[in-house]
């Protein structure tokens, strides 16, 4: 890592960040991830205790809510698929040194487009299994393309307008939520529904269930998740495109010398990342929701995905355990909401703390050095 | 091109874009909706716009100090949420659902103190422990988004507060906080560009080695600016609440992206407090167009109009493009030892 070079421009910041991340060994990264999560959960328990709740009971409710029953496990796996997929979307971009904070927006746009396109095409396709498969594939493709385009947009703005992608993607999240919310309430709303939502997907658009008999968890979703993780891992490590992408991430000058067009790389990275986010949106509506509601209420998968990816050091394989952790936390959240009077937002706060600690590996290095503990961290 | 030339060009471009945005908006309104523009721009509109611009301005002034000194405080949004909640919580603790004006002022003060303390911890993480500024800043947002509604649920049994009280307006129906902000912007400008301390701040972001050689502790300057930025963002959140009169913690909370818009405001204002305030006013006015549209009878969804500031941010960032950011933003400073 060359400090003087990194210091020369704004893009150098990303160089330095990426280089620092790559410097850390795998073992150290795992140590930091485990330490960050543990510390954040501990602080969460202290907060629970300080505000008058029983921390031991809260902790056990977290565990029971995540893995305590067949139903809980199914719910955990369901959230895990979404966290892993959105986490991979974030990891692609972060690995390439592009801060795509807009996965939430791309997820919303992708999911909404899937619903609208399936409902539109359903009029022309026979009902029955074959028609269902056609609708499903078509809707997913539309979701992927829509997410990809919505992701490419800030890429173009960065490449040709020099607009900081952190801010543009955050703005695009607000715009996606507001605009799709308006569409769902107005032009695309179901006039017969009392709730604010679109019409339902036709009955033949459904995925086979998984082992747990949970209607909202499909084996197809889990296979898709594993497939995407494997595919992205292979693309990043075994293809020219992936190599160029990762090189642009930690050493953009080297990438430029080897003939990578930096502008095109930013756009294709953002599009790739947005496509995975759009795919997640499609899976979300087909497997879980069956229609589209106001996106301000569908959960923060795209935001928490940032934490998932960072916890995994932006490694697509590492996203699997990190996504499982978040899936477990979310599942525990819905358990806590029903069975406990601890406000469930505490879990969101814990997630924030995880991210905060992941950002400061030096903190743990220093703690490890001071206490002489945690040889795996140092 | 000399520095002054660059600045002039930048300023011209800034003014150009602003006029462009306003002209397009005016043309669309009078052309498509057949609206008499003089009815749209009323005194109430100006008042509301100023009020809405105030929190953005405060956060922007703080943020630009931090960035000028070489630290990108991307956590402004999070500190604004903390400030807004703390103000509401303190008001409620002091006066229940009908706090007095004195309570409001005390609550604002408490909010500034609390966000200052939290930012101090954040600054230690950034400077002493060299945390990744982008990721840690995002984390502040997440922490705010989680803990503020959590605390609200503890206090009020719901993520939003009941109606508390908003600050009394003074002359011309203006909030005293607007006047205070104007003064602060002026002081911030003078300190940054006309005092020795301001030069230290700029040097810490442009050439920390030189500052170090001159015997000034770079990290100390940065601690001061980062803590100042968090205090200002917390103050901004407090002002937002003092104008609104109740806390909303659902969705992206009542702050709703204003901390992010503040970052754009100071980029657009080219790290000049006065420019940042002008940009904040533009965004504030766009935010308040909603009410105007209703009064002149334009049938357009409030939800869509509320997206205008975000769209404006995109246009501004893309067209205005790269600002001359300080040379070493984002880098921890290592002393030569």
Helix content, binned percent of chain A: over 70%
CATH topology of chain B: ABC transporter involved in vitamin B12 uptake, BtuC
Overall average residue pLDDT of chain A: 86
Note the main sheet of chain A.
none
Our count of helices of chain A gives 16
Number of helices of chain B: 14
Radius of gyration of chain B: 20 Å
Please mark out the parts of chain A with pLDDT under 50 across 5 or more consecutive residues, or reply none: 1-11, 374-378
- Please indicate the percent range of residues of chain A in DSSP E strands (runs of 2 or more): under 5%
Helix content of chain B: over 70%
Evaluate the radius of gyration of chain A. Answer: 21 Å
- CATH class type of chain A: Mainly Alpha
According to DSSP, the number of beta strands of chain B is 0
Task: Note the main sheet of chain B.
Answer: none
CATH topology category name of chain A: ABC transporter involved in vitamin B12 uptake, BtuC
Would you give an account of this structure?
The complex is a heterodimer of chains A (378) and B (337). By secondary structure, chain A is mainly α. Chain A has one domain: ABC transporter involved in vitamin B12 uptake, BtuC (Orthogonal Bundle), CATH 1.10.3470. Chain A contains 16 helices and no strands. The radius of gyration of chain A is 21 Å and the shape is globular. Chain B has 337 residues and is mainly α. Chain B has one domain (3-320): ABC transporter involved in vitamin B12 uptake, BtuC (Orthogonal Bundle). The longest helix of chain B has 30 residues, at 3-32. Chain B is globular and about 65 Å long. The model of chain B has no long low-confidence stretch (mean pLDDT 87). Chains A and B meet through helix 2, helix 8, helix 13, helix 15 and helix 16 of A and helix 6, helix 11 and helix 14 of B.
């Amino acid at each position: 890592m060359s400090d003087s070079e990194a210091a020369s421009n704004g893009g150098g910041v990303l160089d330095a960040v990426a280089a620092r991340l790559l410097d850390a060994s795998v073992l150290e990264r795992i140590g930091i991830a485990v330490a960050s999560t543990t510390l954040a959960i501990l602080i969460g328990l202290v907060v629970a205790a300080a505000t008058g709740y029983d921390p031991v009971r809260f902790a056990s409710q977290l565990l029971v809510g995540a893995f305590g029953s067949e139903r809980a496990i199914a719910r955990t796996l369901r959230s895990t698929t979404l966290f892993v997929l959105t986490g991979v979307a974030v990891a692609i971009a972060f690995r390439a040194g592009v801060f795509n904070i807009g996965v939430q927006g791309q997820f919303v746009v992708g999911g909404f487009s899937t619903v609208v396109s399936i409902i539109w095409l359903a009029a022309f396709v026979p009902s029955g299994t074959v028609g269902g498969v056609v609708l499903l594939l078509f809707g997913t493709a539309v979701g992927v393309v829509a997410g990809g385009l919505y992701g490419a947009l800030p890429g173009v703005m960065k490449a040709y307008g020099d607009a900081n992608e952190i801010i543009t993607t955050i703005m695009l999240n607000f715009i996606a939520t507001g605009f799709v919310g308006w569409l769902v309430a107005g032009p695309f709303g179901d006039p017969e529904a009392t709730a604010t939502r679109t019409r339902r997907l036709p009955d033949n658009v459904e995925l086979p269930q998984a082992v747990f008999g949970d209607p909202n968890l499909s084996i197809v979703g889990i296979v898709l998740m594993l497939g995407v993780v494997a595919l992205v891992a292979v693309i990043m490590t075994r293809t020219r495109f992936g190599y160029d992408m990762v090189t642009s991430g930690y050493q953009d000058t080297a990438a430029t010398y080897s003939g990578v067009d930096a502008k095109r790389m930013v756009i294709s990275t953002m599009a790739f990342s947005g496509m995975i986010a759009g795919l997640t949106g499609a899976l979300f509506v087909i497997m879980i929701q069956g229609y589209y509601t106001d996106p301000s209420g569908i959960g923060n998968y795209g935001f928490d995905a940032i934490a998932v990816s960072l916890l995994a050091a932006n490694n697509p394989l590492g996203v699997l355990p990190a996504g499982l952790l978040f899936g477990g936390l979310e599942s525990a959240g819905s358990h806590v909401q029903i069975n406990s009077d601890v406000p469930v937002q505490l879990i969101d706060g814990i997630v924030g703390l995880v991210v905060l600690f992941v950002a400061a590996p030096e903190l743990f290095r220093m703690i490890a050095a001071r206490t002489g503990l945690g040889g795996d961290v140092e | 091109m000399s520095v002054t030339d660059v600045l002039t060009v930048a300023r011209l471009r800034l003014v150009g874009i602003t006029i462009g945005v306003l002209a397009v908006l005016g043309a669309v309104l009078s052309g498509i909706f057949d609206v008499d523009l003089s009815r749209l721009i009323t005194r109430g509109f100006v008042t509301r716009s100023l009020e809405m611009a105030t929190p953005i301005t405060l956060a922007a002034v703080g943020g630009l100090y931090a960035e000028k000194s070489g630290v990108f405080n991307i956590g402004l949004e999070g500190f604004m949420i903390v400030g807004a909640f703390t103000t509401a919580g303190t008001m409620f603790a002091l006066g229940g659902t009908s706090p007095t004006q004195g309570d409001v002022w005390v609550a604002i003060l408490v909010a500034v103190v609390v966000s200052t303390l939290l930012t101090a911890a954040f600054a230690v993480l950034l400077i002493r422990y060299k945390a990744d500024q982008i990721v840690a800043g995002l984390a502040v947002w997440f922490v705010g988004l989680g803990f503020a509604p959590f605390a609200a649920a503890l206090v009020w049994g719901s993520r939003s507060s009941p109606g508390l009280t908003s600050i009394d307006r003074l002359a011309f129906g203006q909030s005293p906080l607007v006047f205070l902000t104007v003064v602060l912007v002026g002081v911030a400008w003078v300190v940054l560009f006309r005092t020795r301390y301001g030069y230290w701040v700029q040097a810490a972001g442009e050439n920390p080695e030189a500052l170090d050689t001159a015997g000034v502790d770079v990290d100390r300057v940065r601690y001061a600016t980062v803590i100042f930025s968090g205090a200002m963002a917390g103050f901004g959140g407090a002002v937002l609440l003092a104008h609104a009169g109740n806390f909303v913690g659902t969705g992206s909370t009542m702050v709703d992206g204003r901390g992010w818009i503040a970052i754009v405001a100071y980029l657009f204002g080219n790290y000049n407090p006065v420019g940042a305030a002008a940009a904040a006013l533009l965004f504030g006015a766009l935010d308040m167009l909603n009410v105007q549209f209703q009064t002149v009878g334009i049938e357009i969804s409030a939800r869509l109009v509320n997206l205008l500031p975000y769209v404006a941010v995109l246009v501004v960032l893309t067209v205005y493009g790269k600002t001359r950011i300080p040379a070493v933003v984002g880098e921890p400073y290592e002393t030569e030892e």
